[in-house]
Amino acid sequence: MIFEQFFDKISSTYTYLVSSGKGREALIIDPVLENINDYINILNKLELRLVKVIDTHIHADHISGIGELKNKTNCATLMGEGAPADVVSIYVKDNEKIKIENIELLTLYTPGHTDDSYSFLMNDRVFTGDTLLINGTGRTDFQNGNPYDQYKSLFERLLKLPEETSIYPAHDYKGMKVSTIGNEKKFNPRLQVSSVEEYVNIMNNLNLQNPKLMDIAIPKNSYPRMKVEK
Ligand SMILES: [Fe+2]
Q1: Distance 69 CA to ligand 1 centre (A)
Q2: 170 CA distance to ligand 1 centroid (A)?
Q3: Which of 8, 30, 149, 210 could form a disulfide with 111 if both were Cys (CB 3.0 to 4.6 A apart)?
Q4: What whole-number distance in Å separates Cα of residue 80 and Cα of residue 92?
Q5: What is the mean pLDDT of each run of 10 residues along the chain (230 residues)?
Q6: In angstroms, what is the span from residue 7 Cα to ligand 1's centroid?
Q7: Residue 113 C-alpha to ligand 1 middle, in angstroms?
């Protein structure tokens, strides 16, 4: 299997490329507009045909590359239903299968960071977007975020996956590339809570600054999506 993890230094975003092998179909998760050429170069090098791109949610800190990848490769663009982005060609629901050649991803609706946040389970690994981060969880204070929903998404969905499941988040700010459900259960400080109220209290008192690009990124990534300049 081909599995590539790209890192965008400006927004600390992780992007993933998945394929079952050289010359086969490929899928990309959470591409960043500025890095499109890097993805295309790898696709070409490995003779991969990009057929699907996914955004885990509407991002607030970078401009998504899904529209531009669709323009350049004619791939399908996927997001969860309810995502306000008109660039999306296939809306997925909870518990649906996304297939490319020899690979299958299961959709998990995991709202909380935003109300359109999805995670994607691929056998022994899960792409958690900004729902579950390594040693953290995604903020819930804008884009219809909701800490109660996030608690449910974490404790009733993601943390019920097998402990050895690898976690690949949409961001990391400290250079961590991968974790496991078991590790996060044990060591993630946000998850060491004994009630939903305790979790909500933590999330409502983070006092974070807004992302630098938020006023540009949300309108560009949302409906009506502005045309991406070439
Ligand atoms: Fe986010």
Answers
A1: 20
A2: 8
A3: 149
A4: 5
A5: 97 97 97 98 98 96 95 97 89 98 98 97 98 97 94 98 98 96 98 98 93 88 54
A6: 15
A7: 7
